[in-house]
């Protein structure tokens, strides 16, 4: 059951897992390569070499300046003796300026305002080398950070990782007869739950994706769910259930299956044939009633459906019957006359539940019909027949969401016992292959 959709969901899970893991491993490998390259490359002296050269040149300049005005050991006259100290003072000033310039260049500071060309070029080169080194360090740190994130379980899925897999999933859902609005809701939920998600050490990306898929599917499938058995048990007796839908989807057989279902719960039932226009309808439902040993209330062909079901309710009250199961004529949601009959049954009988029946294999058609029937007759829930033959599961996923009313049962065969209570959690586990 639903094997086709199950395979498509599993493919999406693997696509995201492979994309995220390959990207993370590539980042880790790149970081490792950079770390090895950094370890093998000699230290870059560009930042210090040129300032050192400037300092050396400055020292030579200072030394040369200091040596130039070498005073005479024996001054010959007074003028020469007076000039010598002045020339010496200038030399000391020049040496001091050159030394300061060299020191500032070595520290990476701007050259003095009146520094010469070579010193300025050396200082600019030093700053450029330092900036380049900082950029390399930053890039390397970023790669190391990504690698560490992969190793420690931090962010593993980014939005671009989901772009292609989500598109593939959307196509898969639509091909599986999931209604478009429902498919979009599923995709939005998955995106919200995965983008920027973190991973614990004990988790894999596949587990994260599976959890997101589980939550997204459960949110749309479980809309409107209520405890069917509890509602029947607590309702005033007799409880009246009316079944509607188009011809040939299995309404009458479903009524018979529910009669067996209630019998197992210790509840008595009476069947009523409100399908008064179809030739052979009385005979068909009577066969089921006889096989199950149940009472059938029926009128002649062409009678009033509301009157038939009203009589069945009266019979149930008189004979302490717990549940009335009323069939109605198969109708298209475009038939105004037949829809008017449903409205009359609702006014005359006031059923406790109106249940829409359709085939799971009808896919998008079943979804659209459920929407129209709900608008016309305010259904309370749905039963999908032939679910065992449905590989897509689109109707089962979509009907509750588009109507706001739950799927109550799945028909999974022709036998009277082939009726399963619809459990959203079990449905999601079946689609995701959990527990297998």
TrEMBL record:
Q: Where is the composition biased (Acidic residues)?
A: 30-43
- Tell me yes or no: is GTP-binding among this UniProt entry's keywords: yes
Protein location:
Cell membrane; Cytoplasm
Entry EC no(s): 3.6.5.4
Composition-biased stretches, type Basic and acidic residues, lie in 1-25
> What is the membrane topology listed in the Swiss-Prot or TrEMBL record?
Peripheral membrane protein
Q: Where is the SRP54-type proteins GTP-binding domain?
A: 406-419
Q: Which UniProt keywords are given for this protein, alphabetically ordered?
A: Cell membrane, Cytoplasm, GTP-binding, Hydrolase, Membrane, Nucleotide-binding, Receptor
- Residue ranges of coiled coil: none
Give the start-end ranges of region Disordered: 1-143
Which residues of this UniProt protein bind GTP? 245-252, 327-331, 385-388
**Chain intervals with Low complexity compositional bias:** 61-70, 96-109, 119-132
Record carries keyword Membrane: yes
Provide the reaction this enzyme catalyses: GTP + H2O = GDP + phosphate + H(+)
Query: Which family does the UniProt entry place this protein in?
Result: Belongs to the GTP-binding SRP family. FtsY subfamily.
Among PANTHER family, the record links this protein to:
SIGNAL RECOGNITION PARTICLE RECEPTOR SUBUNIT ALPHA
Query: Sorted alphabetically, which HAMAP family does this protein's record hold?
Result: FtsY (MF_00920)
How does the annotation summarize its subunit structure?
Answer: Part of the signal recognition particle protein translocation system, which is composed of SRP and FtsY.
Q: What does this protein do?
A: Involved in targeting and insertion of nascent membrane proteins into the cytoplasmic membrane. Acts as a receptor for the complex formed by the signal recognition particle (SRP) and the ribosome-nascent chain (RNC).
- Protein name, entry field: Signal recognition particle receptor FtsY
